[in-house]
Amino acid sequence: MTRFAYFKGRIVPAEQATISVKNHAFNYGTAVFGGLRGYWNADDEQLYVFRPLDHFRRLIQSASLLRMTVPHTPEGLEHILIDLLRAEGYRENVYVRPLVYKDLDGIGVRLHDVPDALTIWTLPFGKYIEKEEGAHVHFSAWRRVDDNAIPARGKISGSYANSALIKSDAVLAGYDEALVLNQDGHVSEASAANIFMARNGTVFTPPVQSNVLEGITRRSLIELLRNEMGVDVVERDIDRTEIYLADEVFLCGTGVQIAAITRVEHRAIGSGRMGEITNELRTLYQNVVTARVEKYRKWCAPVYATEPMSES
Ligand code: PMP
Question: 193 CA to middle of ligand 1, Å?
Fold first, then answer.
C-alpha cells in the first residue's frame, strides 16, 4: 500500500497528494514520467533502486522536451526518493513513479507560460506481464507514435494513449502484448517495453532513431550481453519478417523486466520455448538488479544505508 507521496516539495500522506480536475496535465496530457524499480534483497536486508541517476536524467530530459524544468539534479532527486522509500519502510519489491507535470488550473493548449511541478509516488510491485517465460503477441494495427508527432524518446504522458490502444487491443484479442511498427514499417517496440531478437547467435535491437523510448533496461542489457555473455549486439532496423524467423525474441523494460516472446500470432518463435540467450540473460539481470553482482553494484542504490552510493 502507498502511504506517502512527494508533493509540493515535501513528503505528505498519499491522500493529500491530489490535483484539480482543471489541471493542465490532466486535461492535455502535458506531463512526463519515469518508472523505476526497487528490489528487495533478503540476504542483505536491503532495498536497492536500479539505476536511479539514469532514470532521473531521462526524466529531466523528457521534462525539457515539454519546456519544464526540474528544480533538482539527478542526485537531488535520488535523495528525495530515498527519503520517500525510507518513510514507506518497504521490505519487498517496489515500483517508483516520478512525474513532472504542467501545474496550471485552466484552459489553453500550450507549453509556454505554464508553471510545472514534481511529484513522486511508489507502490509494492510484482510482475507486469504474467507470462514472462513465454508470451504470445501480435503485430499491432497501431503505429508507434512518431518523433515528429510526439517525441518518442521522451516519456510523455499524452503519448501513452498510443500505448494503451496497443495494449488493450492486444489483450482483448487474446494476446499478452503487441509488437508495434513505426511509421516506416520497421519494428519499434512493444506497448511499454523495448525489443530484442536473436538470429544465429547475434542479438539485434532497433536503434534509438526508430521511435523507441531510450530504455534504461535496453542499455543495461546491451552492456550485459556484450561484456558478460560475449554476445554481439547490433543496433539496426528490424523487419517484421525477421521477427518471424528469429531464434529468440524478448522484451525488456523496468516493468516488464525480461519477457520471452515465444509466439507471434500463429507462428512459433524458434523452438516455441524461451531460448538460451534469453534464459541466461534473465538470470543475470535478476542477479544484477538485486545487487548480487559486484561489478554492477554501482547500478544499485541502497535505500537503507546512511548514504546512497549509486554512481552510474
Ligand atoms: N518503451 C516504452 C514505450 C516504455 O514505456 C518503457 C518503460 N519505461 C520502455 C520502452 C522501457 O524503458 P526502461 O527500460 O527505461 O524502463
Answer: 5
| The CATH number of domain 4-126 is 3.40.50.1980 | no
151 lines ligand 1 (CB under 6 A): no
- Write the pLDDT tens digit of every residue in 128-142: 888 899 999 999 999
- Judge whether 191 and 177 are in contact, CB under 8 Å: yes
- Dump pLDDT digits (tens) for 204-240: 999 999 999 999 999 999 999 999 999 999 999 999 9
Cα 71 to Cα 19, 44, 76, distances in angstroms: 20, 33, 9
Q: Residue for cell digits 550481453?
A: 225
- Which residue carries 521490505 as its cell? 91
CATH code, residues 135-289: 3.20.10.10
Nearest atom, ligand 1, residue 213 CA = 1
CA of 101 relative to ligand 1 center, distance in Å: 19
